[in-house]
Write a structure and sequence with these properties.
This protein is of the alpha/beta class. 38% of the residues lie in helices and 20% in strands. The protein is built from 12 helices and 14 strands. The strands form 2 sheets. The chain has a 7-stranded parallel sheet. The model has no long low-confidence stretch (mean pLDDT 96). Bound molecules: L-homoserine (HSE). The site of L-homoserine has 9 residues, from loops.
Length: 364
């Protein structure tokens, strides 16, 4: 049995990975080892075949014993430990949720439903570093897989509506605290009308005790049109990732331009995207629908009507689910080769943990 070391298994992505692996009985197929920076020496989770003690995640000699390492610990850990580990001669498989190694030449971005063939090829070619993609990129590619596969896409403009979870667990809690803060205002002033309470709540968001340590700004009753760092191009880093990562995953011979504005919204867990897709030829809508729905088992076509859209095509509807609904599909009035679409997805499942789990399954 392969020895598999888990690093960062208690964080949000790590916990979702553990939950999925338990659901799919994956632990039965491996000998698992749990690593931690702070819990070394303590009892490991009592799982089928797990080594009973937590090991130190900075102990290179213990890490080196593993056939496969899966890190959900974050980019700083990868930057610090991965080079030391490789320089020490470790030749095992490194599976990582963090972005640090994604664009390295010797790393493949993994997204099983879309590039399983490329993963197999990479394994045959001796690639050892397999990195999960950015959440919105992965969710968009699973949703639009059929169009990319058919070579129909000229370019895509993606406008994202990203949930608090993408910024981390503390940010999710902060969004809820912000909601409570403004909710308490309403409770204290039950007789005020809408305009009066809006004025008071807007003022309250500027108060020093308004909880915004993590986001730096109110997200509740608001939105934040910038995610990640600033780049010289005027894009945010999150926006930059769309084109570079998607084309790396697709291994496009000719770069498909993908760009848009990434926005943090007050959804809790799941990301959404409004897409304008420029097709390189005119294709009728029913063909497009068939291509999309038949591309992989996870994509789910939602009829372009009000009730189905409001019921099935929302962040709340996909929370905890592996399905990726794609809807609002219609030709735009701009021209017959312009397609409108909207998609949602659980950013902790296919957006983060699930590609890592699939990669592990493939290796074992
Ligand atoms: N960068 C994403 C976000 C997280 O901020 O929502 C998923 O990779």
């Amino acid at each position: 049995m392969k020895k598999v070391g888990f690093i960062g298994w208690r964080g949000m992505v790590g916990s979702v990975l553990m939950e999925r692996m338990l659901q799919e009985n994956d632990f039965a197929a491996i000998k698992s080892y749990f690593f931690s920076t702070s819990l070394g020496g303590e009892k490991a989770p009592a799982l089928n075949g797990a080594y009973p003690e937590v090991l130190n995640s900075k102990d290179i000699s213990q890490l080196k014993e593993m056939d496969i390492l899966i890190s959900c610990q974050g980019g700083d850990y990868t930057k610090e430990i991965f080079p030391i580990l490789r320089n020490s001669g470790w030749n095992g498989y490194w599976i990582d949720a963090a972005s640090s190694l994604r664009m390295e030449e010797d790393a493949l971005i993994i997204l099983d439903p879309v590039n399983r063939d490329k993963i197999e090829q990479a394994l045959n070619n001796g690639v050892k570093n397999f990195i999960g993609g950015n959440c919105t990129v992965s969710l968009m590619l699973i949703g639009l897989h059929g169009l990319f596969k058919e070579g129909l896409v000229d370019w895509v403009s993606s406008m994202t509506y990203q949930a608090a979870s993408g910024a981390g667990a503390k940010n999710m809690m902060e969004l809820l605290s912000q909601m409570k803060f403004v909710g308490d205002y309403l409770a204290k002033n039950p007789s005020l009308g809408a305009l009066e309470i809006e004025k008071k709540i807007s003022q309250s968001m500027g108060e020093s005790d308004f909880p915004k340590e993590n986001f730096g700004h109110p997200l509740a009753l608001n939105l934040l049109p910038w995610i990640d760092t600033e780049l010289a191009s005027g894009q945010s880093k999150e926006e930059w990732k769309a084109q570079v990562e998607a084309n790396k995953i697709l291994q496009s011979r000719k770069i498909i331009p993908i760009d848009g504005t990434c926005v943090r919204v007050g959804a809790l867990r799941c990301h959404s995207q409004a897409l304008t897709i420029k097709l390189n030829r005119s294709v009728d809508l029913s063909t497009i629908e068939n291509l999309i729905k038949e591309a992989n088992p996870w994509v789910k076509l939602v009829a372009n009507n009000k009730s189905a859209s409001l019921q099935e095509l929302t962040p709340a509807a996909v929370s905890g689910k592996l399905s990726i609904p794609v809807g609002r599909l219609r030709k735009m009035t701009i021209g017959d080769d312009y397609l409108n679409a909207f998609t949602c997805g659980d950013q902790l499942l296919w957006g983060a943990a699930e590609p890592l789990r699939c990669m592990l399954r493939q290796l074992i």
